[in-house]
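Worked example 3 (structure in, sequence out).
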């Protein structure tokens, strides 16, 4: 189906921030291709779901191929899928490394590479990162998150420069701790203390930041911190 409607591809779209992004882009009038490992069909004909683990070779290309087949275009990619495992560095296992780099880096690489091959002027890449890249905390040791998400921050700026002459922007949102089902409510008080505002972010805080970047046509290469001041220090 070819349509003039703009189309957003969102990974990690089955719950939390990803699910919020699907709703937000639909409100903007976009068609959406929503991906996660386990995602069911949508009742909305303008939301096409593609189940698959983007850490696996070929899945990212399959997601973009599905977008082209369903809608005939890709205008925005939000690389939202991510894995965050906090533990002392020497306790990370090979399986941890494979899982984190697979989703955070290979998933980004294949989806974004495939999308940029078909994206036209006005396109937009948004990468979801973390403020722990800028402000490490001994209470939350997470070197592999910094390795992968720090790489995404650098790649964001590189893509912004490389694709500016094609009219394609690239930005990132570096999040603090957001209240999602992945966090045990018993940990909320301790997690809130990581930033000077002393509260967790809401899904809407993250979604609104992405929507801002989507509509900010003169912003590219930006790492937008949405973290209650966490990256500024204590």
């Amino acid at each position: 189906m070819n349509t003039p409607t703009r189309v957003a591809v969102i990974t990690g779209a089955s719950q939390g921030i990803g699910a919020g992004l699907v709703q937000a882009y639909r409100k903007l009038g976009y068609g959406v291709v929503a991906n996660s490992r386990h995602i069911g069909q949508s009742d909305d004909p303008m939301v096409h779901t593609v189940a698959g683990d983007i850490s696996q070779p070929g899945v990212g290309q399959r997601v973009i191929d599905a977008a082209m087949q369903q809608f005939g275009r890709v205008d925005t990619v939000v690389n939202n899928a991510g894995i965050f495992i906090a533990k002392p560095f020497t306790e990370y296992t090979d399986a941890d490394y494979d899982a984190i780099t697979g989703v955070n880096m290979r998933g980004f690489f294949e989806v974004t590479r495939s999308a940029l091959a078909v994206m036209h002027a006005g396109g937009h890449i948004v990468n979801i990162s973390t403020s722990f890249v800028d402000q490490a905390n001994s209470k939350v040791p997470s070197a592999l998150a910094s390795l992968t998400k720090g790489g995404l921050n650098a790649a964001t700026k590189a893509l912004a420069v490389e694709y500016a002459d094609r009219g394609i922007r690239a930005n990132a949102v570096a999040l603090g701790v957001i209240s999602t089902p992945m966090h045990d409510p018993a940990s909320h008080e301790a997690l809130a203390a990581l930033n000077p505002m002393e509260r967790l972010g809401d899904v809407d805080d993250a979604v609104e930041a992405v929507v801002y970047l989507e509509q900010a046509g003169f912003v590219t290469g930006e790492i937008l911190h949405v973290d209650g001041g966490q990256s500024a220090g204590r």
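Notes: Residues 79 and 100 are 14 Å apart (CA to CA). The beta strands are 7-11, 31-36, 47-51, 76-79, 124-130, 169-175, 223-226.
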